[in-house]
Design brief:
about 150 residues; alpha/beta; Cytidine Deaminase, domain 2; 7 strands; about 35% helix; globular; binds zinc ion; zinc; zinc ion binding; Competence_ComEB
């Protein structure tokens, strides 16, 4: 029996987290992994205790929802809150991170970014990743492939 690859497993985890998103604009999930262990995860959502965009509608300013904390930030902040080092870790995200998240990911010492879908891939984000020598690679997510594993077990 074939085993699911780590890369596909962690990307599937991010896809599942995206299903928890509370902002209607984009469902994003992020999983931070070190030595093949999940150290943190996050999805697009409000500050804890705040209303959800899916219930109240987004809070838009200058074309952005200002209520939402991005999935990548939520995952990084989980590391901060729990006192877990993100240095040298890998982040699996459902979408190419926005510029602010890219800067935070780099600053948090993450060295590899795997993303499933392109999303406004910002030229300055790419420039920074290149400059800092951060590995970033697109790993398209194949739902059917993962479903096969689940159905065959
Ligand atoms: Zn929103
Ligand atoms: Zn972002």
């Amino acid at each position: 029996m074939e085993r699911i690859k780590w890369e596909e497993y962690f990307m599937a985890q991010s896809q599942l987290l995206a299903l928890r998103s509370t902002c209607e604009r984009l469902s994003v999930g992020a999983t931070i992994v070190k030595d093949n262990r999940i150290i943190a995860g996050g999805y697009n959502g409000s500050v804890a205790g705040e209303v959800h965009c899916i219930d109240e509608g987004c809070l838009i300013e200058d074309g952005h929802c200002i209520r939402t904390i991005h999935a990548e930030m939520n995952a990084l902040l989980q590391c901060a809150k729990q006192g877990v080092s993100s240095a040298g870790a890998t982040i699996y995200v459902t979408h190419f991170p926005c510029l602010n998240c890219t800067k935070s990911i780099i600053q948090a010492g993450i060295t590899t970014i795997y993303y499933a879908e392109d999303y406004h891939n910002h030229h300055y984000a790419i420039q920074l990743l290149e400059q800092e020598g951060i590995e970033y690679k697109k790993i398209p997510f194949n739902q059917q492939h993962v479903a096969q594993y689940l159905l065959n077990n």
